[in-house]
């Protein structure tokens, strides 16, 4: 309104005469019609700000920003498309992400299971080729040249080959016994009673030959037997028994699921080892007490082996009962 008032102050009037139609020759100006003219005026006036809208214009809807939003709209990046793209990515459903991760995790598991299948045949084959074949098909005359150090080293070499095969077999058995999902723990701890009686059996089988050797040197047992023939007959037996005790302690400490199989593997070979000792005793003309000692050890380890097999049957039944109880508790909770 101020600009209109300024413009009206600069207006000027011009009088225009009015023609009278009385005679065409003489024209007289009777009335004057005022004509308003204005010259352009340059004035620097502030702009008019009108906050009132006309009735036909819709009012703008204002939305207050939510306090829990935690971010300003379209202020994350300078590009609107980048902002919208990032928000859509962040709001993607979690189900698709879980499906992708599950598919990615199933691939290595399937590959591992595929690699475990040949172990069911490869492990027993290694155990057979390293333990049974040399003992059953290798002639005794090729490794036994008499009661001397060479024969002792040859026999120890055969037992070392078996121990290598048994170690590979136990490693494969441990790998096959592990669960499919690596995230699940597979800690198998044997009961204390099993550990106690197993240690008693091993220590008994270790002490009996040493007591017989001590009695022979002290003269309690006749005839006496020197150390070298005794080492050739029962030296490999004592060495492999020490390795078995160490292996069992390691499986208990690592809580490996092969703790139930380890004594069966070694004790089965020990029976063949003692039967070989009987043949060697006949070759070197060992005294009768030595032969009876070896026979007693064979019977002892056959008894222990039978108890180990019964332990496997008991453990299978115990696992079945525990699985049924777990399923019943899960169904009751559901």
TrEMBL record:
Keyword Cytoplasm carried by entry: no
Keywords from the named record: Membrane, Transmembrane, Transmembrane helix
Segments crossing the lipid bilayer: 117-140, 152-172, 192-215, 227-247, 294-316
Coiled coil (UniProt feature): none
Full protein name: Cytochrome P450 family protein
